[in-house]
What we know:
Shape of chain A: globular
Helix content of chain A: 25-40%
Largest sheet of chain A: 10 strands, mixed
CATH architecture of the largest domain in chain A: 3-Layer(aba) Sandwich
Order of helices and strands of chain A: EEEHEHEEHHHEEEEHEHEEEEEEEEE
CATH topology of the largest domain in chain A: Aminopeptidase
Largest interface: C-D, 51 and 51 residues
Radius of gyration of chain A: 22 Å
Oligomer: homotetramer
Number of domains of chain A: 2
Strand content of chain A: 25-35%
Amino acid sequence: MTKAIQSSVQVGELATGQALTVPLYSFIGSESSAPSVYIQANVHGAEVQGNAVIYQLMTLLEGYQVLGNITFAPLANPLGINQKSGEFTLGRFDPITGVNWNREYFDHQVDVQAWYREHQHLTDNALFQAYRSMLVEACQKRLAQPFGISTGHRLAVNLQTMAHQADIVLDLHTGPKSCKHLYCPEYDIDAARYFSIPYTLVIPNSFGGAMDEATFCPWWQLTQYAASQGRDFSVPVSAFTLELASQERIDLDDALVDAKGILAYLSYRGVIAENVSPAKMARFACYLRDYKKCHAPKAGLIEYCAVVGEPLAAGQPLVNILRIDLYGTDQAFQAISLPMDCVPILHFASASVHQGTELYKVMTKVFALPSV
Amino acid sequence: MTKAIQSSVQVGELATGQALTVPLYSFIGSESSAPSVYIQANVHGAEVQGNAVIYQLMTLLEGYQVLGNITFAPLANPLGINQKSGEFTLGRFDPITGVNWNREYFDHQVDVQAWYREHQHLTDNALFQAYRSMLVEACQKRLAQPFGISTGHRLAVNLQTMAHQADIVLDLHTGPKSCKHLYCPEYDIDAARYFSIPYTLVIPNSFGGAMDEATFCPWWQLTQYAASQGRDFSVPVSAFTLELASQERIDLDDALVDAKGILAYLSYRGVIAENVSPAKMARFACYLRDYKKCHAPKAGLIEYCAVVGEPLAAGQPLVNILRIDLYGTDQAFQAISLPMDCVPILHFASASVHQGTELYKVMTKVFALPSV
Amino acid sequence: MTKAIQSSVQVGELATGQALTVPLYSFIGSESSAPSVYIQANVHGAEVQGNAVIYQLMTLLEGYQVLGNITFAPLANPLGINQKSGEFTLGRFDPITGVNWNREYFDHQVDVQAWYREHQHLTDNALFQAYRSMLVEACQKRLAQPFGISTGHRLAVNLQTMAHQADIVLDLHTGPKSCKHLYCPEYDIDAARYFSIPYTLVIPNSFGGAMDEATFCPWWQLTQYAASQGRDFSVPVSAFTLELASQERIDLDDALVDAKGILAYLSYRGVIAENVSPAKMARFACYLRDYKKCHAPKAGLIEYCAVVGEPLAAGQPLVNILRIDLYGTDQAFQAISLPMDCVPILHFASASVHQGTELYKVMTKVFALPSV
Amino acid sequence: MTKAIQSSVQVGELATGQALTVPLYSFIGSESSAPSVYIQANVHGAEVQGNAVIYQLMTLLEGYQVLGNITFAPLANPLGINQKSGEFTLGRFDPITGVNWNREYFDHQVDVQAWYREHQHLTDNALFQAYRSMLVEACQKRLAQPFGISTGHRLAVNLQTMAHQADIVLDLHTGPKSCKHLYCPEYDIDAARYFSIPYTLVIPNSFGGAMDEATFCPWWQLTQYAASQGRDFSVPVSAFTLELASQERIDLDDALVDAKGILAYLSYRGVIAENVSPAKMARFACYLRDYKKCHAPKAGLIEYCAVVGEPLAAGQPLVNILRIDLYGTDQAFQAISLPMDCVPILHFASASVHQGTELYKVMTKVFALPSV
C-alpha cells in the first residue's frame, strides 16, 4: 500500500500577504512508458464534489499497482473556494473582474507549420517531448510577462503548466443543479465509454478557454498538421471535463462511483496494472451545437419541473413560472415547454429569476454511445 | 367565487428612481366582528415558497365564505428578492449595511403603565382600538423621522403598519435547507396544533427584532399590565413565523399542504365560515433556549449526514468533514456528532465552510404537543 | 426654449415582475438632412457622471436651435445601477454571470460582400438607409431568439437598436480613478479635437464587444468593401466612448465642461445651428497597442503615487507597496516603477490588492494631436 | 535601535484549510511598571490606513526608549481584508451573516458586585491583576464554547484576549469618506488632547459591541462599583477608536502625522521615556447623542457638497440630488440641507443611493476642547 506524496504549488498571493497555495498529491508510477495523469478539482469554488472523488480515488489507488505518474490537485482555486456571499460560494468568477475562472487558460496559438518544419526530423517520441517542452516554457514565459498578468490568468497558467506535463488530464467540475455529464473532444469520443457518466457532450477540437481545450488543442493541431505532411500518429494527449452532478454537495458514496469510473479509464489506458471494467450502463451523447441554453422568457418564481438526466418529450413542462403580481390573470401561473424532445442536463440554482436568466441547459438530438 | 382585490404599497425607492412596491391582495370579510388577518411572504429574498402558499391560499379562499378581512403581501421585500450574487439570491440582509431584513422592525417600547392609566376607563374593544391606533401612529411617525430612516427600517415599518391593523399576523419564511417549523410565542402555544407543521419553537414573549415579535409584544405587555391591575383579557393579537421548508424552492403541491394548514387555523379563529380540520399529524416542540446552533469546529468540506426533521440519537454523525489538505492524517475525514439526542431542523446551504460557520440548528429536549 | 420629450424603453424584467426601464429624452431636429444623435450613460452601474453631463447638455440644448434629432438614454442600465455591495455599486458585470455589461453588444458579422452585391445599385443615401434597416432588423430578430437571450444581451441589444438609428453615437463612461479620455476609432481621429478631453485612445476599426465598436464596425466594413469595388464615401456613422473621469462621482460643474465639449462636436457636425468652438487645450493620443495594463507583481497595500493625467518619467514610482507582514525586511515597503515614460490614465479603486490586480493603465508612446 | 519582534496569532480557518492568522509585532518595555499597549488596525477590511500608521509608529519607536510593552496587530481581519467585490473591499461585515465585524466583541456582563465582594481585600494592583485575569479567562472560555462560536466572534474574542492584557488599547479604523475623528469615553476625555485628531465623539461608558467599549466597560464598572463602596481609583484601562480619514487609502505622509499623535499620547502616559508634545491644533467634540445620521430622503444621484471636517451653517447644502428621470420637473435637481449648524464628519462612498441610505454623519452642538 502506497500513499500519495504531498507537496504544494503557489498560485498567487492575497492582499494580506498570504500565499495562495494548492495542495498536490503524487503517485509515482513504476513504468516510465506508462501515460502520466493530472487530475484537478474545484476550479469553480462551489463545485466541491471533485475533491471527494479525488479522496476516494487516492484511497483506492493505495491498493493498486500504479504504472504511470499521477498528480492530483484538489482545491485548485483557493481564492474561489473561500469566497462566500451569503450562504453560498461565489466562486464561479473573479469577484473583482467577473471573469470566469474557467476561461483564463492560455491559448498557445502555436505556429504549428513553422514549429513542425523545424522539428520534423525528430522521432515521434522526441517530437512529442520537444512539443511538450515548448508548451511548458510558453506557460512559464507567460507567468513572467513584463507588465504582469491577472490573478485568474496566473492561477490558470500555473495549473496549465502542470497539466501540460501529463498525457491524460481530467478537470473535475459540477453543474449548478445537474446530472453527471462529460465534455469530450470529438477525436477522443471512444473514451466516453469508460467513465460512469451517462451523458456526453461532444465538443469541437478547438480552443474555448477551458482547461481541457487548453490541453488538447495544441496537440490536435500538431497531429492534424503532421497528417497533412504525410505523418500519422494519434493525438498524444487526452483531456476531459467531468461534470459530477450538482455544486455545493459532498457525497462520499457517490464519489466512490465516479472514482471507479475514472479508474476504469486509467486501467484502459494502462496507467494502472490491474484490469478495471467500466460500469455497465447506457451512455448517450449530443454535439455541442445541439446543446441548448433556455433563457427565462419572462421574470418570475420558478418551479423546476423537468428532472435532470431524464428524457423530456416535446411539449412537456420544463418549468412553471409563478407571477403572483399578476394573480387574477392568465399570466399568474404558466408552464414553459420546448417544441422538441430533449434531455435536461442542468438547471439554475435559484427559484426566482430575472428575464433572460439561463433556466435549463438541454441536450437535443441525443444519440446512444456504443458500450466498450 | 370572489377574487382578491389588488392594490400595492410603496416601501422605498431605488437609486434609479424606481419605486419599490409590494403587491397587496385583499379579501373583504362579511362580518366586522370576525378577526382580520395579515399574511406576508418573502421578506428574505431567497425564501420564495411563501408566495406559492399565498397563491394557493388565495385560490382556495375564492371558494370559501370569508368573514374577516384578509390582506396578503407576497414578494414583501422587492430589493432583497431582486438582489442576486452568482446563482443565488443574496436577500438575507441589506447588501449595503449587512443588517438582517428581519431585524429591522420597530420596537415600540410603549410606556404601558402611563398609557393604561390614561385609557383604562375604555371598554375592552375601545381600549384595543385605541392601542392599535397608537401603534399605527407610532409607525407613521417613525417613517417621518426628521433625519430620515434606513432603507431596511423603512421597509419593515411600512409592513409593520399593515400588520398592526390585523388581529392575526403570519410571516412566511423558510430556512436554508430546512424542515417545516413554526415560531410560536409561549402564550399562544395552542395555535401550533392547527398548522401543517411538525416542529414548533416556543419563543419568549419579548422583542427580538422580527415581525411576529414586533406585532405581539406590545399586546402581550398590555395584557400583562392590565392583569396586574385586575383586568383580564386574552392577548388580543396573534402573530407567528412559519418556516416552510427550504429557500430557493417553489413547490406548488407542497404549498397547497401549507395553505390548507393555514386555512385550518383561520377556520378555528372564525375568519372563514366553513369548518376546516387541521391535518392529523404528530407535532413536537422545544423551547428557544433548547434550540442549539452548531458551529463548525474546524473548516472543511461538509457532507451533511443528518436529515432535517428526523430525530438523531446522541453520538450519531451530524456531518462528516473532509479535509483533503490533510490526506494521510486522521484529520482527513472526520465525523462530528452531538452528545445528546436532538432533531436537526435546518442546515447551512453550502458544502464548504470556514471555521465557525453555523452548520446545523437542532432542537433538544423536544416534547410532543397534544392534538386538537 | 424647447424641453426634451420624455418617453422610456423596457429593457428587461426583474424577478419580482418589475419592468426594467430606461428613461429616454428626445429633441426633434428641424432639418431632416442633419445628422441624428444617440447618447447614453451609466451602462456600468458606478459610472454615474455621464448622467450629469446629459443633464447639463439637455439644459444647454434648450437654448440652441437643434437641427438633427437627438436622443438621450441616461441611467441606461437600471439593474447595474441599483446593484450595491457594501458601500459601492457593483455594476460592472452581471452579478449572476460575471459578464461585463459592456461586452454584451451584438456582433453583426455582416456578409458585406453578399449584401453589397445585392444593393450596390442604390444611391448612397438609399444604400445607407437599407444598411441601417438591416442592422436594426437583425437586432430585433436577436431579441426574439427562440431559446431566449441572456439578461445582459437583452439590455445591450435594446440599446444598440436605438444606437443604430443614429448617425452619431456617444457612450458616456468613466474609469475607476481616472482622468478623462476618449476611445476613438482610427478612421475618425479628427473628431478627437472637439471634445474637452485631453487623452485619446486610438482603437482599431474592429469589433471588441463595446457599444462604439458595435455601432461603427459594420459601417466601416461597408465603406471598406465599397472602396474595394471602386465606390468611395466616408464612414457614414461615428461612435465614441467618452471616459469622463472617475466613477462614484457626480460633479455638476465638471459635467458642464464636458457638455460644452460635446456641444462643440455636435456644432462641428451640424447637429445644432450655432457655432460652438472646442475648448483650447492640449490633446494627446496613443494607440491601443501602446496602452498598457500594469498588474500587481505582488500582493499588498497600495499607495498610488502617480497622478492620473500627468506624464510620469521612466523610473518614477507608480505605486508604493506596503507589506507590513514583512516588516523588518527590504520587502516591507517597495516602490514599483516602469522602465519607460508614460501617462497614467487610471488606477484601481481599492488600496489593498491581490497579486495580479490591475493597478494602473498607462499610455506609452504618447503623441500630440493637432488642434482644430 | 530595536526592531519589534514578530509573531502571529491564529484567529480562524478558511474552507480550504488555510489558517487565518494575524501578524503581531512586540516592543518589550524596560520598565515593568510602565503601562502596556495594544494597537490593532484594519478590523474592517477597507480601512487600511491604520496599517500605515502602525508601520510609521514602529519605525519611529525603533529610535525611542520604550518603557512599557507595546503589541501591534496590523491586518487584524484577514478574512475581511481579502474579501473583494468588484473594485472595492467588502470588509465591513461577515459576507455570510451580514454581522458587522466590529460588533462581535464579547460583552462580559460581569457581576461586579459579587466579584468585588470576593476580591475587595486585595491591594489595588492585585485587584486589577485578578480582574484582568478573570477577563482573559472569560474570553478563553468563550472560545471553547461546546456548540462552537461564529467566525466573527472567534476573530473578535481572539483580538479581545490580547487587548485585555494591555492598559492602553487603540483600535485604528477609518470612515468611508471621512475626516479624522476619535471615539473617546466620557471618563477619559482628557486623552483627546494628545492625538492629532481634530474631532472627538464623546461616547457613553457602556457596551455597544466595539473593541474600545469591550475593553474599558468592565473596568469602568469596577471603578464605579468600588467608588460606591468607598474605594477610589481612576479607571485602570484606556481604550479609544481612532478614525484616520477615509477607507481604501494608503498615505504614508499622513500616517506619520498620526503616528506622532499616538506617540504624544504614549509619551504622556509614560510608555516611552522621551517627551513628545502633542500637535498644536484646535480640537472639537460633541456627544454621541448629538451625532446625527442623515438618511437619503429620496433616491437619486448624489453630489456631495459639504466638505468633511469643515463647519456647515444651517441651510447650506449638504448634498444635491440629481433625478434625471424627473428632468423637466422641480424634482430633477434638489439641494438637501439641515436646519442647524453642524460639522459633517463623513459621507457615503457611492454617488447613487437608494432612499434611506445614510448620506452623512454630522456633529451638532460642537464644542471646543481645551489644549494640553
